[in-house]
């Protein structure tokens, strides 16, 4: 995959000052002023001195960060077109790319789902590829199986699967079944998510249960 680097400020600016300035701006948009002021310096120090700079998305060891806040309050290590090795026009789509990223600590991966065409109907199954290009394909079943094997080796933090869906209804049903088979009770269902939201809005529901 192609690496992207975002540079903020002049080349002579110290990285820690750049990170602190950027964090202060982002937190001013989403967090109360008091919280942003007290935690920005600590977060900047953690980012500039942690194994992130060594291409690890999640620092090793025990977590000291409060994990009770909404998802939008955290930096999430994210991958785009996670399946591609090489360029996005003629590259190779492979399950190993997901395993490598997850073992590095990535917590959000993208899966581009397409129907396998030009085959008998009984043989059609969803594949993962970059549509309308010359990239190779890998089967969806193999991809999610590889993700399930590697998702929680490096980190026990949740993994988000972003499905770019190009399949028809039959393919979508197959994908749903494959996800259940691969992840079992580790898969967060809609009903579980709905129950979590209700409990958060009305804590008495949890106490009654």
Are there runs of 5+ residues with pLDDT below 50, and where?
A: 1-15, 32-55
> What is the fourth-level CATH superfamily of the largest domain?
Phosphatidylinositol (PI) phosphodiesterase
Strand arrangement across the biggest beta sheet? 5-4-3-6
Query: What gyration radius follows from the Cα positions, in whole Å?
Result: 20 Å
> Could you give the count of β-strands?
6
Structural class: alpha+beta
Task: Let me know the largest β-sheet.
Answer: 4 strands, mixed
Proportion of residues in β-strands: 5-15%
- Mean pLDDT equals 76
Shape: globular
Tally of alpha and pi helices: 7
Top CATH class of the largest domain: Alpha Beta
Helix content: 40-55%
Total discrete domains: 2
Supply the CATH architecture of the largest domain.
Alpha-Beta Barrel
| Order of H and E elements | HHEEHEEEHEHHH
Question: Mind explaining what this structure looks like?
Answer:
The chain is α+β, with helices and mostly antiparallel strands and 209 residues long. The protein contains seven helices and six strands. A hairpin with a 6-residue loop joins strand 1 and strand 2. Helix 1 runs antiparallel to helix 2 and helix 3 packs parallel to helix 4.
Key words describing this protein structure:
2 domains, alpha+beta, single chain, 41% helix
